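anyone seen this seq b4? input:
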Amino acid sequence: MEELEDMTNPENAQYFGHKEPYPLEVNAYHRFLIPQYNNEVSTTELKLFLVGDEEIEIECRLTIDNNKLFVVTFISYEEIQGHFEIRDFSGNTLFYSNCVKFIDSTDNEGRKYIRIATKCTYNRNLFSYSDGEHDWMITNLPAYCLGEFEMDEDVTLERVGDLLGSEISGSWYEENVKYRILAQGNNNILTFIAVHSTNQDFYIDGTKMTRKEKPEVTDNTQEVIMKFSYQKDENGLNIILDEEAILSNVFTMALANEGNTAVYVYNSNYIIPIENA
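predicted toks r here
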């Protein structure tokens, strides 16, 4: 933990860090990737704890492959605060994080933090995953949709007739929407959204998006305005993400009937039995 408390490190001197908890949405699944650096583990018997005023074990699924920890998927049903620790069966801390806080982000207008999903298929060495199992990350960002829509268009005209009138020979339209990101002066958030929004697979609240332009930074980078456009399928409809398929590894097969029933706890505190056809 000394590395996180060293305020001579610019990474720790930012708004969200060891002293100011990073907000995570309560009652929602979060799926983070572990960098391919010192991520070797000698056992699969690992647990996730949130260490604050008290130590609380967090419901999670840890994805381990070839003795390396790649993915952490977790959820909290309580509004609690602390830093994460991944421990082995002997209680030794193998990985830890900055301070986080699970919150209900609902504002006075009923809006919640946006939920993003992206495939980390870019070649950055630390996250060079492209096997479909280890490459998705899902979480919230401290950002709200402004509800501001606009249209981009490109209309081509051609002259027709003896009077040199004109008619439309081609047209192109695109829907755009603006988001306000609460950066609070934290360049990590700006870097995160700038890098990940250039991925081909980038979803906001379950809809595939394309970043339109550079972030519009306001005074002191307290807020950042970003514009995105909706990607369409061959029918002109928005492309929707099947988040349940990505989070399929949080399924637990029941043993009572030889695995014919799946117990699923997706975004809910209830256990739902689903019988196979």
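The mean pLDDT is 78. The first strand starts at residue 22 and ends at 25. kinda curious what u guys think
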